[in-house]
UniProtKB/TrEMBL annotation:
It comes from Pedobacter cryophilus. This is SAM-dependent methyltransferase. InterPro entries: SAM-dependent_MTases_sf, TPMT. Gene3D superfamilies: Vaccinia Virus protein VP39 (3.40.50.150). Keywords: Methyltransferase, Phosphoprotein, S-adenosyl-L-methionine, Transferase. GO terms for biological process: methylation. Coiled coil: none annotated.
Length: 196
């Protein structure tokens, strides 16, 4: 398997091999953001890539949006897209998610969990837990399928994720998304996981 380091991901962007990128925010996350009231929530988007969620949040008046990705090209692309927004409202961090420290109310999951080596999943859970404030939550999408090839993306099942998260998070919601984009219909879970 390839080493899934910053060079690997950066080269995927440089070579136009970013097939995961929907080109816009996913419909489930858009619907979720639309009903959020607190515009000053500290929101983290890890492994954000072209970060369509960040653009959508800023367009909709959110004031504390942090994006982390270790691929330089992704952040370069994003910087150009954010020139019209108040720079006090967003933070772009080029770093490894697992090295990042901070305190957030909400972490948005969109095709990041499935991009990391499965052996790091427990680290993801523990690190997300550390990064969240009291009552903080992970909200987003996780694949509910096993891919017939070596990842990324790496899939999984609801049962596996319940086992993985339950020690550190209350599973408020983990159900098949009802409003997925067409190519992902029936293959992803919408999750709301509250920090214990
Ligand atoms: C499959 S892409 C998804 C990008 C974006 N969320 C989307 O849905 O278009 C995974 C992203 O995670 C980033 N990534 C992978 N491992 C990372 C890590 N340990 N720290 C920071 N970024 C990471 C990659 O550079 C890539 O941009």
């Amino acid at each position: 398997m390839s080493v899934l380091d910053a060079d690997y991901w950066n080269n995927r962007y440089l070579n136009g091999q970013a097939g995961w990128d929907l080109g816009e925010i996913s419909t489930p996350l858009k619907a979720y953001i639309n009903q959020l009231q607190k515009k000053d929530f500290a929101i983290l988007i890890p492994g954000a890539g072209n970060a369509h969620e960040a653009v959508y949040l800023l367009e909709n008046g959110f004031k504390n949006v942090t994006v982390i990705d270790f691929a330089q090209k992704a952040l370069d692309n994003l910087r150009l897209k954010l020139t019209s927004f108040d720079s006090q409202h967003f933070h772009l961090i080029q770093d490894d998610f697992f090295n990042h420290h901070g305190e957030y109310d909400l972490m948005m999951e969109q095709t990041f969990f499935c991009a990391i080596d499965p052996f790091r999943r427990t680290d993801y859970v523990k690190h997300a837990h550390q990064l969240l404030a009291k009552d903080g939550k992970i909200v987003g999408l996780m694949f509910n399928k096993i891919f017939p090839f070596e990842g990324p993306p790496f899939g999984g099942s609801k049962e596996e994720y319940e086992q993985l998260f339950q020690a550190h998070f209350k599973i408020e919601l983990m159900e098949e998304a009802h409003n997925s984009v067409l190519p992902r219909q029936g293959s992803e879970l919408f999750v709301k996981l509250i920090k214990k």
